UniProtKB/TrEMBL annotation:
Keyword Membrane: no
Entry GO MF terms: hydrolase activity; metal ion binding
TM spans (from-to): none
Signal peptide boundaries: none
Organism the protein comes from: candidate division WOR-3 bacterium
Entry keyword DNA-binding: no
PANTHER family: AMINOPEPTIDASE, AMINOPEPTIDASE YPDE-RELATED
Domain of life of the source: Bacteria
Organismal lineage: Bacteria, Bacteria division WOR-3
Entries under SUPFAM superfamilies matching the protein: Zn-dependent exopeptidases (SSF53187)
Name of this chain's protein: M20/M25/M40 family metallo-hydrolase
Keywords (A to Z) from UniProt: Hydrolase, Metal-binding
Length: 201
């Protein structure tokens, strides 16, 4: 009845869980796009030291064609790209475990690895401390598995920083995130983008 090669998807809708948790399909990386939309609203009437460009890219789980286009589109000689801030999801859990997952509700997860900008990471860590925002570091020994991998080698290289939101049940139709983590990411990134120090590196 169903031809070979037919596309099938789970027919599930987002639902609110207890407290500030939400479950739904494709939250990796709809939560990153949601964060970007909140940022546009937050920064609409604020003074920004530079020009912001938001990209919601495709095929991040595979060949990253979308990130490649984004990187090429801002790598023209007339563009003055200072940095790329990538918002994504990372593997989450409900408790502190030594298994490479990060606890939901404990704030943003900041990526640290050889392909990411150390200067921008240290700036974000310092800002988070000044704002009283809890965060966790995610050690990434090679690539990040996110758009930051492509953006960091686009053109002459774009300094990239990775801010992730913990997400439980990754790559399932019932992914779970904590909206408190979205709020703290919003606060951190919004303050950072309004600060001339971030744009001076």
């Amino acid at each position: 009845l169903v031809p070979v090669g037919s596309l099938c998807v789970w027919d599930t809708k987002p639902v609110m869980l207890q407290g500030t948790r939400v479950a739904g399909p494709g939250l990796d990386n709809k939560v990153g796009v949601f964060l970007a939309l909140l940022l546009t609203s937050e920064l609409m009437d604020r003074q920004i030291p530079g020009r912001l460009r938001f990209h919601a890219t495709t095929q991040e789980e595979g060949v990253m064609f979308g990130a490649g286009y984004a990187g090429r589109s801002v790598s023209a000689p007339e563009e003055d790209v200072r940095f790329a801030m990538v918002a994504d999801a990372t593997f989450g859990s409900d408790s502190s475990q030594d298994d490479g997952t990060f606890e939901l509700g404990k704030g943003p997860v900041l990526g640290k690895g050889p392909i990411l900008s150390r200067l921008h990471l240290e700036y974000l860590r310092g800002l988070a401390s000044r704002l009283g925002i809890d965060y966790t570091l995610e050690p990434l020994v090679r690539s990040t598995g996110t758009e930051a991998d492509v953006l960091s080698v686009s053109g002459q290289g774009i300094p990239a920083v990775l801010v992730s939101i913990p997400l439980r049940y990754m790559h399932s139709p019932v992914e779970v995130v904590d909206l408190d983590d979205v709020d703290t990411c919003l606060k951190l990134i919004s303050k950072a983008l309004q600060d001339g120090d971030l744009w001076s590196f």
